[in-house]
């Protein structure tokens, strides 16, 4: 087959869509045969043969001229297309060569006459191109990496447990949009990770762009906004020991700057620097409490001082399911991407206007300030909460196809008796384990091969859907993240006992030790 064949006659100059419409109108009695022939510019004899063929509209309109026939029927190609989309939805999409191999095996196993290459056992490249022309909803795309933890953790059980806790908070406190906040950290580097596309000479092998260094200096930024579009001025943590007033140049009004030698968020910084800053703008009270939604990072969930301050100031903290922030955290869904895009654009403009200079920590403030003011819009904040189903409250916001990657690891665990009772005990504490509450209805049943019943091999028979084996109890007893209301009394006591036990055993808590010791001393003094 010639890939770029040029027609030499006017035969079959009508389109397949026109033929389909004409066949449908004649069979439905909407138009007579001659009227449909004139309307759609199709020869009457050709239309008559296809109307009387007895085939469905799609098969009748796809029939081509000449002695070469399609390898697969319309229904067979539809079966292949559905399997391709099913594999892609489970994050195991087929490559170009894998599709050629699958098509060859599908034809051989079902004894379909074909002209495929029997030496390489592959379908032709031209067949793939024509298949894509017929299947308009399938195209060759570049895939994005998704971690196994995110693929397995974002499942109906975790999402349902989170919305159950969120719904109980709404029923109790009736939070309006202005009293619901979300906070998260992000990193701003002097060398942006993802440059934008530019115009260049076609065929050139490598396209370069100017950057300040091979690896840039990272500045952590704490961002927070509400469901009504109110933004709390950000906190920036510079990787320095001493603070320099030049770091504040160009920052958004009332932003705060802090320094730490690592440049990362620490427990004491989050508790003693950012949280009082947050309370200044949230203005929570007993009559008007606040809901703060955050991820399960240790600076948020293992900080006892922070949890006590939050409870004393009527701030209810709800933890997102682990490894689900890419779908369920408003900041990740709507704000972080435009912020990073605008920041990259500002760095490119700065380098163009300052030839021979590089971006240092002293320029990050003004570049970030301009990007932040462009990204921090009312619509962005409102869409973040709306698209995650947090406000307005919508537990059915996520369609079923987004949960398909988790079906690969949807397996029945070999629980001990203590683990079987974990979910019952956790409900009373305002805590839900991500693995708890998995119903047996979603346990995969053994695969039944269809070719055993009707002698027909489906694509799934040839290439079974990936399925993980049964899970065994962990020997180490690794703690898993939990969906919890941090400010509930049972959860606070549980965290306190966990940390006290680590200190008694001499275990390492890292940079959290000074904060924990300070907390324990304060508790003893109050006693």
Automatic annotation (TrEMBL):
Record bears the keyword DNA-binding: yes
UniProt GO MF annotations: DNA binding
Domain of life where this protein originates: Eukaryota
Domain HTH CENPB-type: 64-141
Organism: Zophobas morio
Biased composition (Polar residues): 419-432
Record field: transmembrane: none
InterPro entries given in the database record: CenT-Element_Derived, DDE_SF_endonuclease_dom, Homeodomain-like_sf, HTH_CenpB_DNA-bd_dom, HTH_Psq
Major localisation: nucleus
Keywords tagged on the record: DNA-binding, Nucleus
Region named Disordered: 407-479
Basic and acidic residues biased stretches: 407-418
UniProt-recorded name of the protein: HTH CENPB-type domain-containing protein
UniProt-annotated location(s): Nucleus
CC per GO annotation: nucleus
